[in-house]
# Entry
Amino acid sequence: MDEQKYVIRQISIFSENRPGRLAAIAHALGEEKINILAFSIAEANGFGVVRALVDHPEKAHDKLFSLGFNVAFTDVIAVKMKDQPGGLYEVAKILGDAGVNIEYSYAYSGKEGAVLILRVDQIEEAIKKIKNSGATLLERSVFH
Amino acid sequence: MKSWDPRIEEMPKEALQKMQYKLLKSLVYRLYSFSPFYHDRMKEQNVHPDDIQELSDVKKLPFMFKRDLRDNYPDKIFTSTQEELVRYHVSSGTTGKPTVVGYTQNDLNAWTMSLARALTSLGLGRGDVVQVSYGYGLFTGGLGMHYGAERIGATVLPTSVGNTERQIELMQDLGATAIACTPSYLLHIGEVAEKMGVNIKKDTKLRTGILGAEPWTDRMRTRIEDWLGIKAYDIYGTSELSGPMFTECVEQKGFHIWSDLALVEIIDPKTGESLESGERGELTITMLQKEALPMIRYRIGDITTMDEEVCACGRTHPRIQRIQGRVDDMLIIRGINVFPSQIEYALMAIPEVGQHFQIVVERRGALDNMLVRVELNKESFSDKINDLMQVQQKVEHRLRNSLNVNVNVELVEPGSLPRFEGKAKRVIDKRSL
# Structure
C-alpha cells in the first residue's frame, strides 16, 4: 500500500522520573552509534515516556530492551511545515479540517525544514487526508 | 508412597488428643521440676502441674515470647547440658538480638521425621532430586530441608542461596524435580532463567516448589505455578520450633501440624484469649517433645487461622492456613492495620503490574502517607501517558478498596525494585515514632 511508506517507527521508552534515566537511555543509544533525529519527553506523576525517532529503530529497541527498559514501537507520521510564522497553523488547520485527531505531537527544525511529528488515532486515514489537502508528508526513508 | 507414618498421620482425633494430653502432662511436670525458668513462670501464673487435668488446661499455662529467648541469650533456658547437644542454630536477628537454639539428637530426629512426613505428603520420595536453595549454616532452612529430603530417599542437591545462573545450570544438568527456597528467590530464579534463555517449564524437570520463610499469597502461588509449570507448596516453621517443619499436603489447603510434636492454639494477640477454630489470630505453639529448648505456649507472632476438620488426604492432624502476616510486620497507617501480604494479594489480581513491590511509609505533617511502588509489566506499556495514568489509578483504587486506606502508587521500571535471595524486605518505614 502506498500509505505505508509514510509510516515512521518511533521508539517509546518508559522511564521513572528521577535523575540519570535520560542519560542512561542516551548513553545506550550512543554506544550503539544510533543517531537521534527527533525527540520528546512526556511526563506524568512520577514517571515519563521518552519518544524518539532514530536512524536504526530495531537496533535501538533491542539494545534498550536488553538493558531492561520497557520499550515499544509506535507508528507516527511527519508533516513538513513552512519554517516561518503561520507554518504550524497551516498544517494544524489541514488536520483539523480533515477530522484527524492528534494524540500527541512534537516538532523539530532541521535540514528538511520544520517538521511536525504526529501520533494520530487512524494513521492510514490521516495519511490519505493530509495528502489530499496538499501538505507534504515525509517518507520513512528520510529517517531510517 | 502416600504417607510416611500412616499410623500416626491418620490416627483418629480422640486418640491423637489423648496422646497430646499425656505428652503435655509429662512435659509440664518435667519443666516444673527441672527448669528454673518454667518453674518461676508457672509460679507467677499460679499454676501447678497437677492443674493440668485435660488437654484444654493448656490455657492455664503462661505464654512464652521471643523476648524470653533474647533475654536469656544464649542458652540460659536450655534444659539440656552442652554435652547433650549435637547442634546449634542461630536466628538472623533481623528483629533484634539473635536467638540461639540448641538441639539434642532426639530433637534433630523429630525435626527430620516431621519433614519426612511433610515431604511425603506433598508427593516427594525416592527418585526425586531436591534442590535445596535455602541458606545452609546458622539459618535452619538449608540443613533442615537437607536432612528431611535425604530421609525420604530423595537425592539432595545442596546449592544453598546465591550464584543463580549456576543454580539454573545444575537444575537442568542434574534434573532437579523439586526446589526448596523462598518464593521471592524462586521468582528471581525464574527471571534469571528467562534472561539465560532457559524455559523452566520446558527445559527442566522441575515440578515441585517447597516455598516458605516469608509470607506469600495464593495468588502468587497461581502465578508461580502457571509461569514455571510446577506445583508450589507452602512450608512453615521457625528456628524456635526447630526450623521448617510443616508443609501443605497435595491438597494445598494449609499446613498439617503434627499433633504428636506440637499443640496449636490460635489466640487473640491483644487479650491472649483462645479463639474458636476458624477465627484469625496469633499462632501459639507448645512443642510436646522438644528436649534442649522446650516451648510452652510460644507466641510466634504469625497471624493465621486453624482448620481442625479431617483433611481430604486422610490426615487427621489440624491444619493452619497460610501465614497472613506477622504481628510485628503489621503497619498501622492512619490507625488502620495493614499487612504487606494484603498488598501483595491485591497486586496479584492486577495483570498490568509485576510481582515485586515496595512499600514506603512516611509521615507528612500529622498524617501517615503510604506509597506503593510497583513495576509496570512490559506487555502493559503504552506510549500514551493517559493509559499509564489509568494503570496507576487502577492500582491505587484497588489498593484503597482492599486496605481501606489511601495509597499512592508509583509505577517504576521493570527490574528496578530490589530482589531478595533470603527473606524479602519490602517495607521502608521512614516514620520516626
